[in-house]
Structures are given as structure tokens and as C-alpha cells.
Design the sequence.
């Protein structure tokens, strides 16, 4: 995000699995399923961090260690080098995950995807069981 924020390697890591309601705790979810969101992406998490004024860096090529097919992670900076919080409303990593899980379902990319799907359902639905017609 910003070039002047050094030493990104010491920032906290957020994987999308941490807030995915479709995953179990054994698979890596870290917040309750009722508060988690469905299949978040690193882009959505990054946009939520931007909205919350939390410095972040998206790393799309990194994989989640428990499931290497899950690609991408986000590094976030909650506290500066002096120990001051970047956003006083978000004191911990857990609080950040909860706030991101609230914002992801309202992400503009998700709301745009759902609108065309509802307008294309105007086609008449076929009724009946299918199969051969009796003579």
C-alpha cells in the first residue's frame, strides 16, 4: 500500500480462512460461524482494511499452510513502532477480524455480482417431471 511503511514482515497476517463461515475451526476459522462471512477474498479483506484506515499489504501468491490451495493473505499493521494503535477502534487482531467479517458482505463487488443474477431469472421456468410423454 504505502512505500514509506517499512518492515512488512513483522506485520500481522490475516488469511481469508480465518473469517470464512464455510470452514470449521479445525480447518482454520478463528471467529464464530455466526459472525463470519461466506468465502471472503484477499481483495475484499484489503478493501475493508482500507475502509477501516488500517495499513495493509495484499500478498496474492502466499498460501495458507493448512490448505495450500487457499491462495492469498493480507498483512496488517495494528500498532505503530511507538506502540500507538493505527485505529483506536480496533485494538486487537480478533476485533479486526470481526469488523472485516461485518464489512465483507456489504462489499461493492459482492452487491454488483448479485444484481445481474436476479435480473436474469425472468425466463419462464419449465414445469413437469421430464421424461417421455405418454401417447
Sequence:
Amino acid at each position: 500500500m504505502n512505500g514509506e511503511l517499512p518492515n512488512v514482515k513483522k506485520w500481522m497476517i490475516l488469511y481469508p480462512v480465518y473469517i470464512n463461515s464455510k470452514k470449521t475451526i479445525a480447518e482454520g476459522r478463528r471467529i464464530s460461524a455466526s459472525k463470519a462471512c461466506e468465502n471472503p477474498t484477499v481483495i475484499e479483506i484489503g478493501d475493508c482494511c482500507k475502509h477501516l484506515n488500517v495499513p495493509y499489504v495484499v500478498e496474492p501468491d502466499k498460501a495458507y499452510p493448512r490448505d495450500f490451495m487457499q491462495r492469498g493473505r493480507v498483512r496488517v499493521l495494528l500498532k505503530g513502532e511507538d506502540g500507538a494503535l493505527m485505529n483506536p477502534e480496533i485494538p486487537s487482531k480478533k476485533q479486526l477480524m470481526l469488523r472485516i467479517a461485518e464489512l465483507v458482505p456489504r462489499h461493492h463487488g459482492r452487491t454488483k455480482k448479485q444484481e445481474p443474477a436476479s435480473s436474469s431469472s425472468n425466463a419462464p421456468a419449465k414445469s413437469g417431471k421430464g421424461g417421455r410423454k405418454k401417447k
Notes: The mean pLDDT is 84.
